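Researcher: I'd like a structural prediction for the single chain below. Treat it as a standalone chain; there are no partners to consider.
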Amino acid sequence: MKTVCRQMFLKGVLTGICSLFLSGWSVSGQELYSFNRKIVNWGFKVGLSANAVRHLWGVQGEEELDDVSFQNKTGATVTGFFRINFDRFFIQPEIGWSTVNKDILFSFPSEETYSQLFELSFRSQTLNANGLIGYNITKTGPFVFNVYTGTSLHYKYDTRYTTLPSRSEHYDFNSVYNAFGVFGFSMNISNVHFDIRYALSMFPTNMNFNDIADKPDWLDGVILYKSENLLSFSFGVMF
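Model: Treating it as a single chain, here is the predicted structure.
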């Protein structure tokens, strides 16, 4: 039953994508529209995001943790934006909300051949404000392509983590600010908007468990040093 449902879902997704492309070609068969004729466009989009870790290691006191590794989980994004057009160039401010999910695994230094592996499962919520500058590669249909770059300011206001194997949940209410350099590519098919981007962290995203009151005792003295980038794909509408 699960296999049949999965096949039906994939068939529906492919049918929807094909319909969008065919609708775009049908416009070209009649008259090429000129997108972004307005001075200002606006829209919203939803999507998925994933971590890309550049650097990860940890210590407990003066001893380095063993077997430190990272497992990515998919997060979600919701973004509203408007676009100010200057011929082929544009400025695009954005306001968004996102979740970031990940697992970090490690073991404590031990003289034993096999040491116990601990796992921390994180889920963070973030508000972000983005400022983008872009260029329209094409401005007439059926497909409109553009590239952009800019900066993204992130305010991480809530982080929850589960410790395994104990499966106890804890909270980190310390606010974290970060800035990212962003570059990406987007496409419009009529008013349907697709976006894919990569964000490079300008600052490390270290986690010092000594600053967290709500933590298990075995995390005393543990600091995780990490630098993370973000890859995201979203789609929505643009008017």
